[in-house]
Amino acid sequence: MLKVGIMGASGYAGEELIRILLVHPEVRLTVVAAKIKKTAICNLYPWLKGRLDLECRDMSAEEISGKCDCIFLALPHKVSMQFAPLFLKKGKRVIDLSADFRLRDLDVYEKWYEVKHTCPGYIEKAVYGLPEFYREKIKKADLIANPGCYPTSIILGSAPLLKKGLADAGSIICDSKSGVSGAGRVPAQAFMFTELQNSFRAYKVNAHRHMPEIDQELSTINGADVRVNFVPHLVPMERGMLSTIYLKLKKAVDTEAALKIYRDFYKGEYFIRVLDGGGYPDTRNVVRSNFCDIGLRVFPERSMAVVMSAIDNLTKGASGQAVQNMNIMYGLEERMGL
Amino acid sequence: MLKVGIMGASGYAGEELIRILLVHPEVRLTVVAAKIKKTAICNLYPWLKGRLDLECRDMSAEEISGKCDCIFLALPHKVSMQFAPLFLKKGKRVIDLSADFRLRDLDVYEKWYEVKHTCPGYIEKAVYGLPEFYREKIKKADLIANPGCYPTSIILGSAPLLKKGLADAGSIICDSKSGVSGAGRVPAQAFMFTELQNSFRAYKVNAHRHMPEIDQELSTINGADVRVNFVPHLVPMERGMLSTIYLKLKKAVDTEAALKIYRDFYKGEYFIRVLDGGGYPDTRNVVRSNFCDIGLRVFPERSMAVVMSAIDNLTKGASGQAVQNMNIMYGLEERMGL
Amino acid sequence: MLKVGIMGASGYAGEELIRILLVHPEVRLTVVAAKIKKTAICNLYPWLKGRLDLECRDMSAEEISGKCDCIFLALPHKVSMQFAPLFLKKGKRVIDLSADFRLRDLDVYEKWYEVKHTCPGYIEKAVYGLPEFYREKIKKADLIANPGCYPTSIILGSAPLLKKGLADAGSIICDSKSGVSGAGRVPAQAFMFTELQNSFRAYKVNAHRHMPEIDQELSTINGADVRVNFVPHLVPMERGMLSTIYLKLKKAVDTEAALKIYRDFYKGEYFIRVLDGGGYPDTRNVVRSNFCDIGLRVFPERSMAVVMSAIDNLTKGASGQAVQNMNIMYGLEERMGL
Amino acid sequence: MLKVGIMGASGYAGEELIRILLVHPEVRLTVVAAKIKKTAICNLYPWLKGRLDLECRDMSAEEISGKCDCIFLALPHKVSMQFAPLFLKKGKRVIDLSADFRLRDLDVYEKWYEVKHTCPGYIEKAVYGLPEFYREKIKKADLIANPGCYPTSIILGSAPLLKKGLADAGSIICDSKSGVSGAGRVPAQAFMFTELQNSFRAYKVNAHRHMPEIDQELSTINGADVRVNFVPHLVPMERGMLSTIYLKLKKAVDTEAALKIYRDFYKGEYFIRVLDGGGYPDTRNVVRSNFCDIGLRVFPERSMAVVMSAIDNLTKGASGQAVQNMNIMYGLEERMGL
């Protein structure tokens, strides 16, 4: 049994990690740490009553290391980079759900996150934890930079056409919509029930911190610079995310041909489901699962492809993917517990 | 034109007052004060852009008095009682939406609200602003204690049977359900969208501060002590409130007879709609209106009446009723602007 | 591996059975039958794409019997009783989620369900599938009458006080609130999103078909006739159910004593969680689980106990409980897959 | 007082017309017709109890004409064109909320709506009822083709940049999101509460019937052919619509310059609110109002403008705009009753 700990158990990604790891057959959850006053974890999450008997409290890296083989950091950026090196130096493996090790260009990180990186040497040691693209590296990694939710949905949705050289890299538009849990668990008026039940709006147009991450990964896939337009929106629902991606085509393909490209590209990928020609990905079908549903339509006469990509922002977009990475790192069946 | 001001414009009751008064044909809204940093009211409530050009800021009673004939206090309890006397001494009329002047028994107030009353002499000057019961007094009042939302729905729902001496005063059960706006606009984790979308629960069983208010008013109507059981619940919707009231009958009546009692009791009351025998009050039908919909079923063989009473907690349960009171106080048509 | 089939796979209880059985380690789901045009089950439920490769179609009892050891009937009442005997005669075991075998008094059944029972002889063979009360009988049963959702929440919530002789059996009030999935999957205007998002209302006051079922079971527990008042309400959320139960006490106990009675009564019952004194059951904590959370407050000076009982109407209130019964019938660990 | 009738009172656009006209100071609502069994309108819409005493039933054009000066057709397309000529021949003025007279090219209409137009001669008599563009023609019109909801939000959001010749007409992307009421009031499983509460998805990618209407109107504004990409999505909320519009810029402007263009373009237009540079239109701020809130961001280095345009799909997107048209046609103050 793998002994596993969570730092940052008091946020939604932490809670989702608990939900998944609790029933994972090869894992024993030994630590749920958070910067809060000591309390039973089931006081924080009453649905855990009778199911998980752990104390949630602030713990040192030292103490956590003594109890775990693998540590999930469900911490805010800036905080993760303080802890990751401590665990790594003790020979532990770390899966970081923050952005601290995702951006390979230090300047880009420091510009977008407005903070000095305290351990830049670890950035190149980190593997970007998108298993469909970096599985082999993940197997051997000690530090996973678990992808952001928006990047996950957008990269998975646009990669096949980009990789094939079919999409114009300079005009990609990503219109994404996320459930409210993406905003985190810290109280704020903007995320009160009363403010959101009848609300739909965009935010951070081309100014969201996930944008450089998308650009970085799509550039790698494309083999040349990609710079997307990225507009996130807030949907009045708890979980789920849909990205609608507009790709200008460089060569004429039709919907069936494009679907074949996607099916071939994701062949053998259990968690990627390419829908049939008439299908529309719906967040409802992926919520609380690690699946990414992809649908598309091509309009050859417009040289336009519209790709829709749906995930659960907390699962494939965060904690589910983190567990998928853990499974790969430890040689377990990739879909175990998911 | 009546010059009207709102203190506490930054809360939901304040916002609802603005919504109503904005289109009231005999009112000019001159003050929207709140303990916040000075800003245009349309920054606080963007739906007001182009519709109301007022500055929202902290203002002294002195300054407000200079601009208003009538002041609505949409303030927390404890705060209202500091301001009401200041306005009254200047000859202004005050409609207080807090609980500070509702409870006639000082001890009861101080016990339930855990605070010393700073102007107890004003309590007896205040008129409980439930127009269907105290219209004549309201006409002449300078200080209105505007009823709480739960009390409004429960008193209107149970009064006719109590007044007729048909209901047992010792065993009344009020099972109430409220939309989330009743919890106010101050951020708290318990009221985040993510925490509530799939949540239904009771709170403050027989411990809610509206209970002594219900008891007081029903006792007056009954002519003898009433002590209800009162269990409020939180419904995942923005607005609306339903109280299901269980009354043990002392004499045999049937549904039709009971409905007739209600129709007679509320004859001429525009805002009280007694539904037909088969009708179920639905919050959907009263939301954003000042109506109270009442439906009932009597089970003579069980000596049980079940009364259902629906209002909008922010309208008939707060700001709409406050404006109804204002209309009465100033000799305007009672339903004007509502 | 137990071979299991579902009749009525196209409704919400059927879908929930699939969700649970899909990951049950000792079950192979071999049949998903429904009275619809033949289609892959993942066309009906797109979340199943890649996860369950079965065809959903109308199938004869004969054919189903050839493929299953145990059959779940997620059928409307009146339909279940046509099929149950066919399976039983072939030596299969049947778990019926309809009401057809729940009511032991034939007249009561025929009055409330307005239909002639076609196989009354099977009623006494059926075991009421509430494991916390009838576990030993369930072990040997071939036909389970799986309880209704409202009865499950109400029986579990009120049994301990009744059994102890502490509650007055003649004045029980059950004010229940259910998520919308309880209304089923057949389209109707009253259950459209647009009609319900801002709606809260009661329905079928003392006229719901679950009432005689509650009376029957509570009478058995009480050892004498019980006749509850039962008022169901519709909550604008997909799943979850809370019953607030008002019990008149015959003897003085306080909250702690009552909690002790509940804890003793449900000792060893994994799925029943009696909350601490300050706890409020919240549907959010039981959704998609088979747990029943119970909280209570006693008011000795009022001789009143208020019990709150939360379940997921589709899980402990239907399909989860059905699987719990299956586990018991086949000697599997009771919580397996749940 | 203008005597006004509604055909199609049983749908959401009809209900919204009633909501607005009920409090319109210069209108008397005399007819609420619908193809249903005769019933009081307050049985159809219980919120109208005590507020509107009209019978809703199937009525002939003859009978309606006798009671009304102006008729709103809130009918399905294909049905409107059967009735409009009957009223016009009797000298009545007609505001048609269907699509039957919106498309000036008969072939386009017949292709997209898959039906033969029965009175093509009326198409050129009809005025497209977007007051901000066609106010002078509307004044004299007898037949208004009231715009669709998506076209309203998209035309208002993109017109200023197009008109100025700043936007590339060949690459416009309209990513629109609508509340559920846009789907109408006829029951269908896809629009049940249980199916939608956690659902977000696109539908009819470049295949929605509003697309040719958008193309037609933007082409007129642009002075040359425009062919947009149009992807509508369904948001789990009752009302409200946001369109996010991506415009490729032909000349360099910055956000402030673009905002100035919008402010100048809509100068004096009460219902169009151009937000400040930092503003994000939110459906919450326009719901139940006739306002259209527009925000934008320009990225000169990308030659990209992102415009966001929010309306209430039932108000500015349907019935509110229809009443605005009526006000203009009859020389009333344009915002009266809105």
Explain the overall architecture.
The structure is a homotetramer of 338-residue chains. In chain A, strand 5 (70-73), helix 4 (80-89) and strand 6 (93-96) form a beta-alpha-beta unit. In chain A, the strands form 2 sheets. Chain A has an 8-stranded mixed sheet with strand order 3-4-2-1-5-6-8-7, sandwiched between helices. Chain A is α/β, with parallel strands linked by helices. Chain A has helices spanning 12-21, 41-44, 61-67, 80-89, 106-113, 131-140, 149-163, 193-196, 210-222, 255-265, 315-329, and strands spanning 2-7, 27-33, 39-40, 55-57, 70-73, 93-96, 127-128, 143-145, 173-178, 201-202, 229-234, 241-248, 272-274, 292-299, 304-311. Chain A folds into 2 domains: 2-125, NAD(P)-binding Rossmann-like Domain (Rossmann fold, 3-Layer(aba) Sandwich); 149-313, Dihydrodipicolinate Reductase, domain 2. The mean pLDDT of chain A is 97. Chains in contact: A-B, A-C, A-D, B-C, B-D, C-D. At the A-D interface, strand 9, strand 10, strand 11, strand 12 and strand 15 of A face strand 9, strand 10, strand 11, strand 12 and strand 15 of D.
Structural class from helices and strands of chain A?
alpha/beta
- Give the integer mean of the pLDDT values of chain A: 97
Please give the number of β-strands of chain A: 15
Oligomer: homotetramer
CATH superfamily of the largest domain in chain A: Dihydrodipicolinate Reductase, domain 2
First-to-last CA distance of chain A: 17 Å
**Net shape of chain A:** globular
How much of the polypeptide of chain A forms β-strand, as a percent range?
15-25%
Unreliable spans of chain A are none
Q: Radius of gyration of chain A, rounded?
A: 20 Å
Helix segment count of chain A?
11
CATH architecture descriptor name of the largest domain in chain A: 2-Layer Sandwich
Q: Helix coverage percent of residues of chain A?
A: 25-40%
CATH fold title of the largest domain in chain A? Dihydrodipicolinate Reductase, domain 2
Q: What is the succession of H and E elements of chain A?
A: EHEEHEHEHEHEHEHEHEHEEHEEEH
Tell me, what is the CATH class of the largest domain in chain A? Alpha Beta
Largest interface chains and counts: A-D, 42 and 42 residues
